[in-house]
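Lab notebook, page 48
Experiment: co-folding of the full assembly
Goal: obtain a model of how the components sit together before planning crosslinking
Operator: M.T.
Materials (sequences as entered):
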Amino acid sequence: METNIVLCGVGGQGILSISIALDIAANRLGWQFKQAEVHGMSQRGGEVVSHLRYADHTVRSEVIPRGKANLVLSVEPLEALRYVSLLALEGALVTSSDPFKNIESYPDVDEVLAAVGREPNHVLLPGEALARQCGSVKAANIVLLGASAPWLGMPEETVEAAIRELFEPKGEKVQELNVKAFRTGRSAGEAYRRCVAAGVPSRSACALAGKLKDGLLSPDAVAPWKAVFLGPGAAEVLSALGQPGQRVKGDAAVPEAILAAGKEADVAELMAGRR
Amino acid sequence: MATEVKTATRPLLGDEALALGAIDAGLSGAFSYPGTPATEILEFVARETGDGPLASAGGVSHSWSANEKVAYEEAMGMSFAGRRALVSFKHVGLNVAADPFMNSAVSGVEGGVVVACADDPGQHSSQNEQDSRVFAAFAQVPCLEPAGAQECYDMARDAFDLSERFGIPVMVRLVTRIAHTRSGVALAEKRPPRPLQPSTDYARWSLLPVNARKGVAALAAKHADLTAWSETCRWNTLDLGRSGSRTGVIAAGIAVNYFLENYGPEDSAPPYLAIGAYPLPVALVEKLLDSVDTVLVLEDGYPHIEGMLRGLLDRPRGKAIRGKLDGAAPRTGELSPDLVREALGLPARPHRAASGLALAGRPPSMCNGCPHIDSNAAIRVVLDTYPGTHVFGDIGCYALAYLPPFQTVHASIDMGSSISMAMGAAAAGVHPAIASIGDSTFLHSGMSSLVDAAKRDVPMTVMLLDNGTTAMTGFQESMVTGEALVRVVKGLGVREDHLHVINPHRKHHEENVALVKREVEHKGLSVIIARRECIQTARS
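Observation: model returned without errors.
Model output:
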């Protein structure tokens, strides 16, 4: 068993916190871990990357060799793309879709997200929206950590216990908020992957996952949602998903109602499950 | 699936592990000046021992010193008093402390002195990638080179033992990736500190030539014993393996990890010598050479071992030496597992292709609301008004003003260089000549230059950017700021009619520009203190 994760984002996005949560978890399991980080000047709005390796055997290199990373976990989509070539052929890419634009030469966001969408084995989630659902936009890093759960190679209870330990100094409320962010991210990630596997376009799946209550999507809702997103009313639905505050129930009734109502439907009302 | 176990290890950065190793070895004093990647050493000592008693009461004293030379000399004073001292800084900090460092090898030490020097191959946040192992060899002191946090912890204790056994300082050389890699560390029993027992061997400590000649001879005489120690110590290990390969490897420090990454427990690695201690274990090097035709040297930093092996004649005992000097590995920059794999002649691992999208870099920049933004906006106007203006910057966040949109730094060489370089340039005929320096850097090594400039009333303008902290390295306390800093500047001999304090804020831009213009036209020394708190500390 060996897990190699590239954690990345921009200074101030909490890359170090998720690295340390995983250190704690690996340590609890009695595994060896090595977590390399870059300090200093890069904290001033620069790119931040941390290489984390853990295994039940000796971990040698501090840096993940090219082709040995199982996972790129990013809180920012442009930063995610920067480290793709470290991934093994079957490696996973989990990233927030929220761009952090502090440079003039930031590429076109649609192109960045499309490039993420072309990666095999990826998850694209609106981390900030999901974190806000849990009580604080600051927990976006933990949402992405949750979405990465299938590739962490360790029991989810251990990760949750580590999150509680990490946030212990900040009190119980912050601990529970972050555990919720982890669970919401895990569920939303699963929802996203189910949708994309079924043929839902990446951006639509991302928009939907960001609105799902607790990130939960019933498996039988995937097919009708696909029909919605590939159908004539898709643009209107996407626009409604783009409105702030809207929450969407994860059962099949919602997309089925949209499909049944046809063109005249008030999509926002339907999504809120108020019909 | 895995289950949780009771953990016996503590997650620590390499820097932190070294600090804790020193504390547990019976440390009494820790001294440093902040600098990436060494900063966390003293920060950890402060966190770990801050609530306890001071050295004089059997605990640990620690401080951010004015500069690395001061830190080193404080460590020597603690050693003179019989107690153990740790001095830490980044590689270029050793340049500042070079005088006491070189001479402490001659005087020797009483209580153990460990010099933790964090190198920065690849220059993540440094102006050069000098290799401190060369400095250790220059001073003729032993050097330990850890290959992980556990070794940082264990070597700190060994370094104190070695220092006291041979009566000389011992260097522990880190590189950025070791300093800033966190892993689980198993701890040893904590030892008590040494008692207060000042040395009475004043002749050894007083380096008048009559005494120092004896010290230099005694130091040279230690080399054979140090080499004998190095040949049997646990940090240098020879494994001739079972592969039968005629190419052997000498790997040092972190390069040992990059090397072994390529071989599982069941694979047989080529014969190799892992180096963690210097002077080099000559007998082990000879044994390796006897069993191979070619030796590949893997080291992060300078081709230090490789250069020694090649010597003048390039092929010791007729064996081929490969490494950074023949292009097997790049001559400069940071070593990596991928570069080592290539140097070993192993095929690259399959990996995912890059996305194909052109990815803009994200360089560091000044924070929104940073006072340096407003100071440099004023300097920019001066630059645009007086052609021929040159600005000599210094080391700190404000060095970022070199970049657009300001481009208000034309040179920054080393800590404190701004004022002295402006003096030299003014002497050459540059006018206006502006020096731009932060409060912490000024206290570190700008003050002596300003004494000189004031004495000679050099026609130049010093912009002293007082944000009240050492921001770039993580907001360590600055020695003197605010009104106390004004008193220091006055005390150094700066004329009061050309000493001003401004508030670098957008709303004062016009008046600030007017003042800077007026002082720039003055044909003598002016000092303008731009005082506004760092936006990061102000917000926290």
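Interpretation: The two ends of chain A are 50 Å apart (CA to CA).
Next step: discuss with group before ordering constructs.
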